Each structure stands twice: as C-alpha cells, then as structure tokens.
Amino acid sequence: MNVKLFILTFFMCFSGAVQAQEEGVKFEAKVSKDNLGVNERLRIEFTMNKDGDNFVPPDFNGFRVLMGPNQSVSNSWINGKRSFSKSYSYILSPLAKGNFTIKQAKVEIAGATYKTTPINIDVTEAVNNPNAPPSADDIADDNLHLVAEVSKAAPYLNEAVSVVYKLYVSPSINVSNFIPNSNPTYNNFWSQDIKVSRFQVENGLYKGKQYRYVVLKRVVLYPQKTGRLEIEPLSLDVTVDVPTNRRDIFGGRLYTQTHKTVTAGQRTIRVQPLPEEGKPAGFTGAVGQFNFDVIVTKTDLKASESLTAKIQVTGNGNLKLFDLPKLTLPSSLEVYEPEFEEKVSTSLAGMNGKVSDNYTIVPQYKGKYPIPGVAFSYFDPKEEKYKTVTSKQTLINVYEGPSAAQADNAVASNGPGVTKQPISAAANQFRFIKLNTTLTPKDAKVFFGSTLFYVILFGPLLLIPIAITIGRKRAEMASDVVGNRVRKANRLAKKYLSEAKKNLGNKEAFYESLERALHNYLKAKLKIVTSEFSKEKISELLLSKGVEDDVVDNFIALLKSCELARYSPSTIAEMQKDYEKAAEVISLIDKQFRS
C-alpha cells in the first residue's frame, strides 16, 4: 500500500514539473546550417512559445538580409491543452568568408525581456554546383535593381543637388509589392522631398538592357558642409514573381514568389567650398541665379503718412538659406522692423520664387530724403564667379508737415525749467455735443390681461399634446427592433470610418485609416487580441456569429484591398468606392451579428 502511494505521488510530482516546464517561456534561435559556402543562403528563425511584442532582431553583421522578417503564428489544442508558437524568420547571404557570430535577438513577453543565445556560423569557399539551375533569388538578383541618380557629383556649397530613386525591373520578372525598409536622413544637407503623386511605369535602359522602371522618391539637397558627404541608401523589401519551367494545364507559365531586399547603395559627393578670391564683403551665402531690386510703394507723401520699401530677391537658388541685405535710412525717418515674405516652390531644379523684407517707413518732417542704393551679392555656380547687383537710389519727397528746424527750435525753447503756457479752449470747441434734448414720457402698459400674460398662462397647456406626440414616437422607435438595429449599424460604421473619410484624396493616409477602422471594429465586436488577428480566424468567428458567407468574403476582400492599395496607384473614385463598401459591410455585419 505504501509502495503504491509512493509511486502515485512520484508521478503526480513528475507531471506537475513537466507541466511547469511546458508553461515556461521559451525564446530561441534556430539556423538551417552552421557551416555554409559564401554563395549559399542561410535561414534563421526566432521562435517563442508565448505571444511577445517589441521584437528586436540582431544586426546580422557579415550577412545581407535577402528576405524577412516573415512572421508566422500557430495555435493548436492537443488533449485540451493549448499550444502557441510565434516566429520571425530571415533569409541571409554571407558577405565574405570567415567566422561570424549572430548576436542576441530580444523580445518582451508579459513585461519581461528575453534574449536568444548567440550562434556561430562558419562561411567557407563557394560551393561548386554547376549543374544546379539558378534559384528564384538568383534570378531576382540579376533582374531587379534600385538606383539613386544624383544630378551633380561635385557641387558647390549650397548648390542644389537632385537625387531620384528608381526601381528597375526586367521584363522577365514581375514585382507585386514593395515596402520601404529604411529612408535616408540626409545628414549635413538641407533637404526637400518632391512628392511623387503616383507610381508610373516607364521604359528605359539600365546597363545597356531594356528595363521597366518606377520613380519611387525624388529629393532636392543643398549641402551645408564642404568635403566628402555621404548620401545614405534607400532600402526596399520587394515581393518578386519569378517564372519557372513549369506550366499549368492551359499552357501558361507558372511563377514562384520570393522576397528580396534591394538597396540603392551609399552615394558620395564631393562638395566644393566657395572661392575666397573675389568674395564681396556683403556676401551672405546666396548661391544661384538671382535678380535683385528695392521697390518703394510711393515717393510723394505727407509727414506721418507711411510708405513701404521692399528689398526683394527673385530667381533660382538657395532662397531659404541666406540673409537679405539691410536697408540703411536717414535718422529722421521712422523705420519699423521688416516683415519677411516668402513665396518659394521646390522642384528637381532647386528652389524657385522670391523672398523679401518689407520695411514700413514713416517720415516725421517735411523735406527730401534719399534712400541709398542697396547691394546684393551672390555666387553663380554656372559661371563660377561672384556677382553684385546694386539697386538705384530713390528720393522720398515729404511735401507737407513740420520742418526739422521748427522741431529743433521747439525743443530748444522748452528746455529745463521752462513752464509751458496753458492752452485755452475755444468757445465752440465742444459744439458737437448736444446740450438740449426733447424727451417725451412713454405710457406704462398694464401687464395683467395683456397678450404676453395669456401666452405665459396658456403656453404650457399647449405643450402637453406636443410632449405626448413625441413620447409616442419614441415608444414606436424603441419597439422597432429592426429599424433600431439598422440605425445602430449606420452610426457604428460612421464612427469607425470617420477618420478614413477625412483622408479621402490622400491615398496612403486613407488606406491606413480604413484598415485601422476595420481592425478596431473587429477587435471591439469579436473581442480578439492581436495574436489571433488572422483572416482565417476572422472568417471562422464571423460565420459562428451568424454573419452570411458573402458578407464575410466581402470583408476579407476589403482587408486585402487595403493591404495592396497602399502600394499601388488609386484614384479618388476608387477610394470613395472602397469607403462606401466598408460602410456597407460594417452595417451588414452589425445587423447579422448574434451576440
């Protein structure tokens, strides 16, 4: 009896220990091989048995990321126990031979941070396999190129440089999607993005071969430092469809899909300093081709009236990056701080437009006042020399007002210790004030028995039938279950889609807000967490709640449309159509949904 009790106790403790071990958090890294040739590929997978957030991969020093991260989530129930698995996988390519260490990855699970164990990888000579056909990755590498075209390799300081990023795709493959991995920061440059409104496919040559290409990004740079400056690369994660040697039953070629990470590569430009020889004394950093003038609104006026003198620079160059010359005026003219005005547009050729300082001038005394010419200097990079433009002198004629001599005499006569004479008011000085009035008394009316008295008395009685009618209408609406459900569904659709409606016309913002609205609606309706948010799970839950098949299919199709539309051209009409479809689907789900 004691032996049986001991065995039973042992098995209970052992099963409890196994269960505790099963319930512990596991986060580990696995590789397809730890010894490979320099021309081979390596697959690494980071797996966790609990749902985690804020996954941080290692930097993969010595390797190039060809694909990833690809995320997968698995849920299963075995003998009543739930098994969960979540993984992030990458495909890597070694950059050179040698011994490399893949460092730790990190993830947060239940508020704690977990790390993987570092893995050592040996990279040897290339593996000879001449009979092996090229893989999909090899074909994509040869037929997909991201290029940064720089307009000038050796610009002057503050001279415009344009950079155009183009994705070249060979006719032998197709690109179904691309997502930016990293955007350049353009350190040591003043930068301005030129918006690409839509991706337009064009034909062109790349290294002597015919390609299709799309302009992804355009930017204008103004270097703010001399010497060798680096332009950081743009990186993309591209989904590529590669043709295979297999065909379907109709003879059409079958394609296989792969993911490629392409980069434009780091570009370096050599920025030349502006020459010191011949640099004008008043040069403030203007580089380009400019016109300069001083414009006065009027030249004849009275004392205490105002005029505006505008110092204006127009043309093409770094209009936002230099100081305008100052206006020097006689001390007898009162001058206010200038108001800066800017009307500048930016294209691939650089900034174009005008900038100006507007001075408000108020003369105090009668006389003639010259506004001297103002000099403006700039460097012309095309002619590689400095130029100076001087405005014409302008004469201001103040034809009426006190003279400066009279003002000086008045100040001298009112020196210290001098008592000012009191000013006597004229007899008719306040003749505009009316002293005699003709007031007539008004008859006081008795309130009792007046019209207002009866309105106040019987008004509440007239409101009683109105209140009864309103109460009956509200009761009818409360009993109308179907109508209330329709109205509630419409309100719910408007609530979740209000942000998307505000962004109609802005493709990326619209589809992001539309997708977020659909996700938030489902989370509120189905009470599911992020890790369970898959299209299969959504379909299963909606069908179990009584939602019809075609409505579920329309909702899933709308989610897929949001994912694809952000990276493909869309018109306002298509966005409006997707918005109306989303509102209709949410309304139908809410009407058919059984709690």
From TrEMBL:
Transmembrane segments: 446-468
Signal peptide bounds: 1-20
Chloroplast listed as a keyword: no
Keyword set includes Membrane: yes
InterPro entries: BatD (IPR025738)
Keyword annotations: Membrane, Signal, Transmembrane, Transmembrane helix
Protein name: BatD family protein
